[in-house]
Amino acid sequence: MKTLIKNIAELYTGQQAESQKSQFILIDDNYIEKIAPMAELTLADEYDRVIDAAGKMVLPGLINTHTHSAMTLLRGYADDMPLDSWLQDKIWPFESEVSADDIYWGTALAAIEMIKTGTTTFSDMYFAMPQVAELVADSGMRAVLAEGLIEANDGQAGLEKALEFACEYNNTAEGRITTMLAPHAPYTCSEEYLAQITDLAAANDLAVHIHISESKKELANFQKDQQRSPIKFLADINFFKNHVVAAHCVHLAPGDLEIFRKNKVNVSHNPMSNAKLANGIAPVVDYLKNEINVGLGTDGVSSNNSLDLIKEARMAAYLQKIKYSDPTVLPTDQLLAMLTQHGARALNLNNVGELAAGKLADLIIINIDQTSFSIPRHNNLSNLFYAADSQVIESVMINGRLVLDSGELKTLDQEKIFYEVEKRAFKIADKLKGVSNE
Ligand SMILES: CSC[C@H]1O[C@@H](n2cnc3c(O)ncnc32)[C@H](O)[C@@H]1O
Ligand SMILES: [Zn+2]
């Protein structure tokens, strides 16, 4: 099937720094065949369906480099707490009651939210990955999936299962699913466990997704117990020999930046979660100055509490401007690059993050014509990042398929998903209330 997106008022391809006016995109099944000015559209450009993008801006689909999708089940369940007690007293007890089916439905709710806010790819570290993969297949989304490993809970059996999942599901769902290994953090996995994961990742050509240096306490505990930072500890065990996506990376010790630069570590910056849990503001400007690749992530919905990457980018810009007392840092073109090309690089995805002939057709169509946020149109990217809400996202195409068409979800049954999530989340919360009241 061939699709023509015509009359695009403003197009950001990611390949050219500047936007282009009045363009068309021709898509052949899941690949972009051609992008050119409308004046160059000829009868030779054949197509089966047309999307009229007059008054619309088209961007590459947005990429969430770090989340725990099914944590939608915990939205609003545990707020305003510090990381360690939030995890130990509220999140982990709740998660111990969550079933594989609950995770399917929680991920479905996440997919609704991601699609409606323009996310086409997400990187998930959570439990019950076969169910997450099923939802990804059903929803039409693109995802990088990894079974999260906490050594005390998962041990060797969990590691075997995670590896089996990664090998079996890599490149499935028409290529929309790729996989990684995901040790949770250096404070929940021992040196031996992390070394074993490092070797298994290398042997199976898998990238690794992990939380690192999220809180001040994590850095202080490591320095007390190990006389080195978590990043130096990981470097010492050769953890960075694989492609690594490191979430958070808020607190660095001297030398850590150089370790990241030398080893080409990819940082997933999660400003909303870092702010809400009061973990601090990551030194993103320093990462960028050192040519360290930075993508954006939302983290899970219990520490955010949404999956909206436009909001995330806005928060990233504001916090970096404050941290460095410099309003020029993280301008809107940089935000877009972090959400698209840099995110794709972080996730080891070569064919998304940019719009060009030969790339996969993952894109979003934004209304810049009839929303108050979009007028006046001095600068549409500025309006998107500094003014808009997700209402401006009109259509979302993933792998050449419209999953949101003029505001209508095409792959997911929203009513059923809302019902299932509400029912399942309350059931777990009620059970835990019973336990703590006894
Ligand atoms: C082993 S699956 C992932 C695991 O991580 C937990 N989690 C969610 N957010 C954070 C965070 O900000 N720091 C550390 N761990 C986090 C999640 O609840 C799962 O248990
Ligand atoms: Zn996380």
TrEMBL record:
<dbReference type="InterPro" id="IPR023512">
    <property type="entry name" value="Deaminase_MtaD/DadD"/>
</dbReference>
<feature type="binding site">
    <location>
        <position position="211"/>
    </location>
    <ligand>
        <name>Zn(2+)</name>
    </ligand>
</feature>
<dbReference type="GO" id="GO:0050270">
    <property type="term" value="F:S-adenosylhomocysteine deaminase activity"/>
</dbReference>
<dbReference type="GO" id="GO:0090614">
    <property type="term" value="F:5'-methylthioadenosine deaminase activity"/>
</dbReference>
<feature type="domain" description="Amidohydrolase-related">
    <location>
        <begin position="57"/>
        <end position="403"/>
    </location>
</feature>
<dbReference type="Pfam" id="PF01979">
    <property type="entry name" value="Amidohydro_1"/>
</dbReference>
<comment type="similarity">
    <text>Belongs to the metallo-dependent hydrolases superfamily. MTA/SAH deaminase family.</text>
</comment>
<feature type="binding site">
    <location>
        <position position="299"/>
    </location>
    <ligand>
        <name>substrate</name>
    </ligand>
</feature>
<feature type="binding site">
    <location>
        <position position="299"/>
    </location>
    <ligand>
        <name>Zn(2+)</name>
    </ligand>
</feature>
<feature type="binding site">
    <location>
        <position position="184"/>
    </location>
    <ligand>
        <name>substrate</name>
    </ligand>
</feature>
<dbReference type="GO" id="GO:0046872">
    <property type="term" value="F:metal ion binding"/>
</dbReference>
<keyword id="KW-0862">Zinc</keyword>
<dbReference type="InterPro" id="IPR050287">
    <property type="entry name" value="MTA/SAH_deaminase"/>
</dbReference>
<feature type="binding site">
    <location>
        <position position="68"/>
    </location>
    <ligand>
        <name>Zn(2+)</name>
    </ligand>
</feature>
<protein>
    <recommendedName>
        <fullName>5-methylthioadenosine/S-adenosylhomocysteine deaminase</fullName>
        <ecNumber>3.5.4.28</ecNumber>
        <ecNumber>3.5.4.31</ecNumber>
    </recommendedName>
</protein>
<dbReference type="InterPro" id="IPR006680">
    <property type="entry name" value="Amidohydro-rel"/>
</dbReference>
<feature type="binding site">
    <location>
        <position position="95"/>
    </location>
    <ligand>
        <name>substrate</name>
    </ligand>
</feature>
<comment type="function">
    <text>Catalyzes the deamination of 5-methylthioadenosine and S-adenosyl-L-homocysteine into 5-methylthioinosine and S-inosyl-L-homocysteine, respectively. Is also able to deaminate adenosine.</text>
</comment>
<feature type="binding site">
    <location>
        <position position="66"/>
    </location>
    <ligand>
        <name>Zn(2+)</name>
    </ligand>
</feature>
<dbReference type="InterPro" id="IPR011059">
    <property type="entry name" value="Metal-dep_hydrolase_composite"/>
</dbReference>
<keyword id="KW-0479">Metal-binding</keyword>
<dbReference type="InterPro" id="IPR032466">
    <property type="entry name" value="Metal_Hydrolase"/>
</dbReference>
<keyword id="KW-0378">Hydrolase</keyword>
<feature type="binding site">
    <location>
        <position position="214"/>
    </location>
    <ligand>
        <name>substrate</name>
    </ligand>
</feature>
